[in-house]
Specification:
- The complex is a heterodimer.
- Helices cover about 25% and strands about 35% of the residues of chain A.
- Chain A has 9 helices and 21 strands.
- Chain A has helices at about 40-50, 95-105, 110-125, 140-150, 170-185, 200, 220-225, 230-240, 335-340; strands spanning about 5-15, 20-25, 30-35, 55-60, 65, 70-75, 80-85, 160, 190-195, 210, 215-220, 240-250, 255-260, 265-270, 275-280, 290, 300-310, 315-320, 330-335, 350-355, 360-364.
- Chain A has a 6-stranded mixed sheet with strand order 7-8-9-3-10-11, sandwiched between helices.
- In chain A, about 45% of the residues are buried.
- Chain B is mainly alpha-helical.
- In chain B, helix 6 packs across helix 8 (about 140-160).
- Chain B contains 13 helices and no strands.
- Classes of the chains: A alpha+beta, B mainly alpha.
Chain lengths: ~375, ~270
């Protein structure tokens, strides 16, 4: 696989930070996570050829794409790398099929051949019926598929995705996350997916590169990052609740009922996600704790006992054991005010509440 | 909240006053135009347009404004793109330089052109040695029109290009088109309404050009006498019907132009 590996050993001076990375990506999906302004998007643009590195090289297999010391820069259109832009950047004046065929046209692929490839790609992504629509007339999830089709129809040697989920609403995210996972794992090329949201990155938890201030803070599987965070920042970022469960059915609000164990059930938007094994992620700050069963609007309420409390700057991280067996852990982050009000001692019985829309569901 | 609850200019007594003031202004604009359109019966109008001075003015206006438009598109499009997409020192100065001919009085523009390209002008001797005599020639008419009219296109095209999202151009580049292919396939089609309305405005301004033309190019029938100049000459020489006929044509064209620009922007 190393013959098609994508490697970046390059630096670029940006306004506030210096992006300097040394990374190699084999076939498979790598999630690039970091706060905004950490240089993630710039790194993608550099690999795509839209930004030229100040120093270093970018290579794809044995091809050199950039070599700053030689002043060599291969133009974006000749790299055979596809970039799916944030908000997708579909051409509004062209139909779906023209958008998808755009790159083939640029490459002077014979018309009949291009037609056949576009049709096959539209078919594969289930958007054949939208072929003649304009991007302005289709939904966010469909737009993402068109953007993917436009990228994949070129049979790229590497695929880059910049915040592919950010433009979607909560309702469609669950199905798109699952689709994306299925699609991207099927494409056997180096695939980089940039996101600022660790919970979204968990969909591709096999390899996560955490970028902070232009530098790689940590690089590994989610389990490594969680178990051995190399910095406080990584620990903060990775402290996302992550569960595996079974999606059973959708109730009248179109919420999915997800069973995590015999006595623990959560409800989350899961429209379009097939029933069966799923993963669920939840940010600790979406959880509120109370001593009495809450009467608020949160859809999910779980009882548990306090296991551990950890002060974290302006917040307090509370680890709870859930359910009768206490086998599942839930982490909540609350304000010091809440800590003063509730006390928190080991074994204390509390109720954890969170909205259904705070959960990120994806098919496993 | 207070602004919403307070008295509105479109309610009560205020409403009547506003309507009154607006009607006065609208009448003031419509009345002279109606006077012009109703002055001469259509067949007199038609025969007045058959005179040699009228037909040659019409032809010359069409030729020169077409040349102006073509030159504006060729030179104005790259200028507008540069102003929309590039950052360079002194850009603000260039921006206002491009807008300047819109606010400079046309007669002043004519004098400036004379001093630059005229026989006594800075480039006069050089052009003379090359056998080019600009002043009082048809090319001078085009230069005068270009000077006063091209900013309308450049302004409109610049804002049109600015409205095209850069990521769309980036996307086109990553998909394999170079700068020119991207410009032709993405930038121009998306900015098209602005380009067309700018071109229409430039053409209309060139058609109505009077001050700079008469200063720089003079008023020679068949050579530099465009429609507005012919209107002026007819009126001076007592041929009111001739002046009215050409004026009516110009008014109808202006009306069509302003309607067209409106349609393009809706």
């Amino acid at each position: 696989m190393t013959s098609t590996a994508l490697s970046v050993t390059a630096s670029k001076r940006l306004r506030d930070i210096n992006l300097a990375v040394e990374l190699t990506f084999d076939a498979g999906v790598t999630a690039i996570v970091g706060p905004s302004g950490s240089g993630k998007s710039t790194m993608l643009r550099m690999i795509a050829g839209l930004v030229t590195p100040d120093e270093g090289t970018v290579r794809l297999g044995d091809r050199i794409l950039d070599d700053a010391s030689q002043g060599y820069h291969l133009s974006p259109g000749r790299r055979n790398i596809s970039l799916v832009f944030q908000e997708y950047a579909l051409f509004p004046h062209l139909s779906v099929e023209q958008n998808v065929g755009y790159g083939l046209r640029a490459r002077r692929v014979p018309r009949s051949d291009a037609r056949r490839r576009v049709d096959a790609m539209l078919e594969r992504l289930g958007i054949m019926s939208l072929a003649r629509e304009r991007p302005g007339h289709i939904s966010g999830g469909q737009r993402q598929r068109v953007a993917l089709a436009r990228a994949l129809v070129l049979e790229p040697s590497a695929l880059l995705l910049d915040e592919p989920l950010a433009a979607l609403d909560v309702q469609t995210r669950a199905s798109v996350r699952s689709e994306l996972r299925a699609m991207l794992t099927a494409v056997d090329i180096p695939t980089l997916l940039v996101t600022h949201d660790y919970a979204d990155a968990l969909v591709f938890r096999e390899r996560i590169v955490m970028l902070v201030d232009g530098l790689v803070a940590q690089d590994g599987a989610h389990t490594d990052l969680l178990a051995h965070p190399r910095s406080r920042f990584v620990a903060d970022f990775t402290g996302v609740n992550f569960f595996e469960g079974e999606l059973q059915e959708h109730d009248e609000d179109l919420l999915g009922r997800i069973s995590l164990s015999n006595d623990i059930v959560m409800y989350a938007p899961a429209e379009g996600v097939p029933a069966g094994p799923v993963t669920v992620a939840l940010h600790p700050w979406e959880v509120t704790l109370s001593a009495q069963p809450p009467s608020g609007s949160a859809r999910n309420t779980l009882a548990g006992s306090v296991q551990e409390t950890l002060p974290l700057g302006g917040r307090v991280r509370v680890t709870m054991a859930l359910g009768t067996t206490g086998a599942l852990q839930l982490v909540a982050e609350v304000t010091p005010d809440a800590q003063r009000a509730l006390g928190f001692y080991e074994g204390q019985l509390l109720y954890a509440a969170f909205k259904a829309t705070a959960l990120r569901v994806s098919a496993r | 909240m207070r602004a919403r609850a307070g008295p509105s200019l479109t309610a009560g007594v205020g409403r009547i006053l506003v309507a009154l003031l607006a009607s006065v202004l609208l009448l003031f604009i419509a009345f002279p135009l109606a006077a012009l359109l109703l002055h001469t019966p259509p067949n007199t109008l038609w025969s007045s347009l058959q005179t040699q001075s009228a037909t040659s003015a019409l032809t010359l206006s069409l030729q020169t404004t077409t040349a102006t438009l073509v030159l504006t598109l060729i030179f104005g499009t790259p200028t507008a793109y540069l102003l929309a997409r590039s950052q360079f020192p002194g850009k603000r100065i260039v921006d206002s330089l491009v807008d300047l001919p819109i606010v400079v009085p046309p007669a002043v523009a004519g004098v400036a052109l004379l001093l630059a390209f005229g026989r006594q002008g800075i480039l006069g001797p050089t052009l003379n040695n090359m056998g080019i005599h600009l002043s009082f020639s048809t090319p001078a008419v085009v230069l005068a029109q270009l000077f006063v009219a091209c900013p309308f296109y450049v302004r409109s095209a610049r804002s049109g290009f600015l409205a095209v999202e850069r990521t769309l151009e980036d996307a086109s580049t990553t998909l394999g088109y170079g700068g020119w292919g991207t410009f032709r396939r993405i930038t121009v089609p998306l900015a098209f309404p602005s380009l067309v309305s700018g071109a229409v405005l430039t053409w209309a301004r060139a058609l109505g050009e009077f001050g700079a033309t008469i200063m720089f190019a003079g008023n020679l029938m068949g050579v530099t006498q465009t429609m507005p100049l012919a209107v002026y000459l007819s009126l001076e020489s007592g041929d009111l019907d001739g002046a009215v006929a050409l004026s009516v044509v110009l008014v109808l064209i202006s009306l069509a132009v302003s309607l067209a620009v409106r349609l393009i922007h809706d």
